[in-house]
Amino acid sequence: MTLRTSADYRAGLRDERRVFYQGKRVDNVASFGEFDCAITHSGLAFDIAAELPELAVVDDGDGPYTAFYRVPRTGEDIANRGKLIEAVSRMGAGTIVLKEVGSDALFGLLRALTGEGLENAREFYRYCCENDVALAVAQTDVKGDRSLAPHQQADPDLYLRIVGEDADSITVRGAKVHTSFSANADEIIVLPTRAMGPADADWAVSFAVPVDTEGLSLYVSPYLHGEPDPFEHPVSSKHKLLESLTVFDDVRVPKSRVFLNRQPELAGPLALAFVDYHRFTAVNYKLPILDLLVGAALEMADANGIGRTGHVKTKLTELITYAETVRGFAELAALRSVSGGNDVQLPDPLAVNMAKYHFAHGFHAATATLIDLAGGLIVTGPGGADWADPGTRAVLEKYFAAAAPAEQRLRLINLIGDITTGQWGGYQSVLATHAEGSLEAEKMMIARAFDDTRARAMVTQVLSEARF
Ligand SMILES: Cc1cc2nc3c(=O)[nH]c(=O)nc-3n(C[C@H](O)[C@H](O)[C@H](O)COP(=O)(O)OP(=O)(O)OC[C@H]3O[C@@H](n4cnc5c(N)ncnc54)[C@H](O)[C@@H]3O)c2cc1C
């Protein structure tokens, strides 16, 4: 077993990977300035082993390895995983870090698969633990016309598919999108994105490949990049991710790394097995964001001198109720965790989806409350260069003081701007709506996971008691 440091992790990214950024090939992602912030941020997934070893490191007898990759076998394991994900997100100011999603995929593979695919997944899992591997997960296909199945698309490559096979390998073609961490991970796990029928067999594929595999190209989004001033953007100047369009141009995958090979009946179960873990990850890494929203609202109200006003107290109470309800559902998901296939424990699907739905449904209203309390300076206030100039700063200190000194107030306003109207706020707003499953996907899972026996029995009981 190996535990790598964040420096080891960064050094491991120096290879021949084909990464494109703003129309140009990036020679070396490890030393590319625009990616530095994201790689440092993702390095927190390694730093936490030294900072919180009791939570982030396990040793089952073969030497220490990262607790992100500990397969949950009990409810307590699920609860501890929730704490770990929350802790690393707290280090990252509420931004997901790196190893969470990859481990969700590993657990999904270990839970849903059978036969040779399961054996390959187990072997790959051991490799990841032994080498402290950084994983990205490419599940979402580009999908073309959303109303059509993979085999019905005008261009068959709009869902990733198998285009060739020999005794030792399969060859795949197509593209995945929104792939977080792909440019700064060691390996990419590919999962199917939906349930499939027999006609979609070529598209029912899952495997893992190193990021520098021949034929794999990553086109990284420029969103959230640049070098924002830390005074103006206290969160986004330090924490961000890399996302890519991930193109497989006839990529050869050794069969030992193939988990699903033309088995459409397993595509849906595998996609869902991942999602059960992934939404649990989502709600736990979002808890520090909720603390940030509540804390910033409380502090801002005090700094503006409105903390005791009736309407403000109501808004703060609603915000607290929203945040603590998400936390309650996240804890419930661990408390009610259930035994899944292949002896892998899973968080309660009903509670997980309610937590994620409640978070996403209330997020935009919550950020609106912060904008309300902070006032218009979020978009008209001074910048870092103004604050750094002694002459301008004296003016700002005089005129922006309120119930708190100007510096404290301006820093709070900038924090609120960053997490609501700024790029990080915009990113989180889209993330809340789409990532880790859409609101519709969560509603579907809530309806599916809800056991209606008790509710129907209550109606039967009341109606039978009412008979005479
Ligand atoms: C920041 C971020 C990070 C992400 N990271 C990852 C990652 O690491 N790996 C990964 O695999 N994915 C990742 N995702 C992808 C995420 O899971 C998807 O965004 C999500 O599944 C929605 O897919 P889409 O973006 O293609 O939107 P679409 O599917 O196009 O959805 C747009 C709208 O169309 C509706 N719609 C879609 N299909 C249908 C249909 N058949 N019938 C009716 N309505 C439909 C949706 O409900 C929605 O309202 C990430 C997304 C974001 C925003």
From TrEMBL:
Entry keywords, A to Z = FAD, Flavoprotein, Oxidoreductase
The residues covered by the HpaB/PvcC/4-BUDH N-terminal domain are 5-260
Per UniProt, residues of the HpaB/PvcC/4-BUDH C-terminal domain are: 273-463
Please give the Pfam families that the UniProt record associates with this protein: HpaB, HpaB_N
Q: Name one GO molecular function term.
A: oxidoreductase activity, acting on the CH-CH group of donors
Q: Which Gene3D superfamilies match?
A: 4-hydroxybutyryl-coa dehydratase, domain 1, Butyryl-CoA Dehydrogenase, subunit A, domain 2, Butyryl-CoA Dehydrogenase, subunit A, domain 3
What name has this protein been given in UniProt? Putative 4-hydroxyphenylacetate 3-hydroxylase
